[in-house]
UniProtKB/TrEMBL annotation:
This is MerR family transcriptional regulator. The lineage of its organism: Bacteria, Pseudomonadati, Pseudomonadota, Alphaproteobacteria, Hyphomicrobiales. Residues 13-74 form the HTH merR-type domain. CDD domains: HTH_MerR-like. Keywords: DNA-binding. SUPFAM superfamilies: Putative DNA-binding domain.
């Protein structure tokens, strides 16, 4: 912080695009606390500007000032979280604009060549053109909410019995809730068990990662599902019996041990890479959370692949402990590791790549 840099109320309002009246209102709400001079003039420093960024980011998500005041009460400004939320919004918007412009340009080229445009294509373009960015805003808000600090609450230990067991996600993976001394653990299939802590009844949180688990009860008040909240997404899972959980674990162990890829694995990966290289990605073949994340990162992925150059070869390496097919992929200018996982319905549920030395 530069202690020597201070703005008057008029300077602060003009530079940020607010009014002095708005600054006074935020101060009255206790959201900012500007420094006062000997003559009682207000001066705004780095901390005030950071908090104003936070307020404006939340207003951008459609929250009322009353809700923002409630949310930020007593919380220190988390500038990195605020900037990450703003960055996500802008990257998502840029990616969608570039994608839509590419599709429109392709359609115009077809029209110029005398080729017909289908009704479905026209409907899709019209839908995208009229689409607002509320979906991206909702994801950014959930990221913000999920990243806030949590405080462990006290619940009756016997309630933990309600949560024990396995739950199946829509994409085919499972998560098991088990007992530990004084509490519970959550273990996603193929990963290590991690301690979770109660915030209140039916609501738990992780300490090692910004994620939470909310348990859902049916009409009979018994827990029949959960929601895993992480990275702005919410993944629902329904309770399954112990035999089904054992079968899933055995299937994963066999695939890993025997290095058994999914059916048509290499062709799926080649198609995936080709789509990202061309900028024409079929997001319908991804689960919703992955599709939205892919749209956000489309421009960055394509830029990485452009630097890598033409595809040369693909070599299957095995199956990761989490059940992902793993490949070494050689490009003209780089060698990368690519991994992907499929949901039970055949859609991509996870995609990851990294450059190798």
């Amino acid at each position: 912080m530069n202690e020597n840099l201070w703005l008057t109320a008029a300077e602060c309002a003009e530079r940020i695009g607010l009014t002095v009246k708005a600054l006074r209102l935020y101060e009255k709400r206790g959201l900012i606390n500007p420094r006062r001079t000997g003559k009682n003039w207000r001066l705004y420093g780095v901390e005030d500007i950071a908090r104003l960024n936070e307020i404006l980011a939340l207003k951008r998500l459609g929250l009322s000032l009353a809700r923002i005041t409630e949310l930020l009460a007593g919380q220190a400004t988390d500038l990195d979280r605020t900037l990450a939320m703003q960055q996500t919004q802008l990257l998502s918007l840029r990616s969608r604009v570039e994608d839509n412009l590419s599709r429109i340009n392709a359609s115009r080229q077809r029209i110029a060549a005398g080729e017909p445009i289908s009704i479905n294509e026209l409907i899709s373009i019209a839908k995208e053109t009229s689409m607002t960015d509320q979906s991206a805003d909702a994801v950014a808000w959930r990221r913000y909410e999920q990243a806030r600090p949590r405080t462990e609450g006290a619940i009756a230990l016997e309630i933990n019995d309600d949560y024990l067991g396995a739950y199946l996600f829509e994409w085919g993976g499972s998560i098991t809730i088990a007992r530990r001394e004084g509490g519970l653990t959550a273990q996603v299939l193929g990963q290590e068990a991690i301690d979770i802590y109660p915030e209140k009844e039916d609501e738990f949180f992780y300490r090692v990662v910004a994620a939470q688990i909310g348990f859902r009860r049916g009409p009979d008040k018994r827990v029949d599902g959960l929601v895993l909240r992480q990275n702005g997404w919410e993944q629902e899972a329904l309770r399954i019996d112990a035999a089904e959980a054992v079968r899933l674990a055995e299937d994963l162990e066999n695939r890993t041990k025997n290095k058994q890829p999914v059916d048509n694995s290499e062709a799926l990966l080649r198609g995936l890479i080709a789509q990202h290289q061309s900028g024409e990605v079929d997001y319908d073949k991804m689960v919703p959370a992955l599709a939205d994340a892919g749209r956000e990162q489309m421009s960055m992925i394509r830029a990485d692949l452009e630097r890598a150059g033409a595809l040369r070869s693909i070599s299957f390496k095995g199956v990761s402990p989490e059940g992902w097919d793993v490949y070494d992929v050689a490009f003209e200018n780089a060698v990368m590791e690519w991994r992907f996982a499929l949901a039970a319905d055949g859609r991509f549920s996870g995609i990851f790549f990294r450059r190798l030395p």
